[in-house]
Amino acid sequence: MVLVEYSAGLPCSADQAWKVLREFGGIADWHPAILKSLLEGEAGGLRVGAVRRLALADGAVLRERLTEFDDGVRGLAYVFEESPLPVDGYRAQVRVDEVAELVDRCVVRWSAGFEVRESGTEAEFEELVRGLIVQGHEGLEGVVRG
User: Fold this and answer.
1) What is the separation of C-alpha 71 from the centre of its chain, rounded to a whole number of angstroms?
2) Residue 65: partners with Cβ closer than 8 Å, 6 or more residues away
3) pLDDT tens track for 10-68
């Protein structure tokens, strides 16, 4: 199994960062690799089981199902329902933590685990997923900086 982990700070409160991240269907507002995102079915993507459909810059479509959501710990997790990537069992998590004694600073912890279908491509897909996570974090930073 490939595991990608990335943590980095943001110049805002944990609540400010979480306000953006908790909008499961709003990822296109801050992630540069995603041109369009929408929630399938009923509105209100803050429920476990919600599915978001993403249109990527290269024309590919990705569908992700929310599997965990917790305002208390400021965290969520999701799995791929449909993906152009040749991976199985993809599960990602994001969590926002306060930085002790700093109200205008937080740390976002990203992780993703998956199996690749073709042996020998683990490093390639680890790099790809890490790049997407870093792009997302940088896009989030741009939004919270205003």
Assistant:
1) 16
2) 49, 50, 51, 78, 79, 80, 81
3) 999 999 999 999 999 999 999 999 999 999 986 555 789 999 999 998 899 999 999 99
CATH superfamily of 2-145: START domain (3.30.530.20)
Closest by CA position to 134, among listed 18, 23, 33, 27 = 33
Kindly write down the DSSP assignment for every residue of 28-94, as one continuous string: GGT-TTEEEEEE-SSS-TTSTT-EEEEEETTS-EEEEEEEEEETTTTEEEEEEEE-SSSEEEEEEEE
Locate 120 and state its tokens: 């020998």
* pLDDT one-digit tens code per residue, 133-143: 999 999 999 99
The count of other CB atoms within 10 Å of the CB of residue 47 is: 11
Query: Tokens 């791929």 label which residue?
Result: 80
Cα gap 67→124, rounded to integer Å:
26
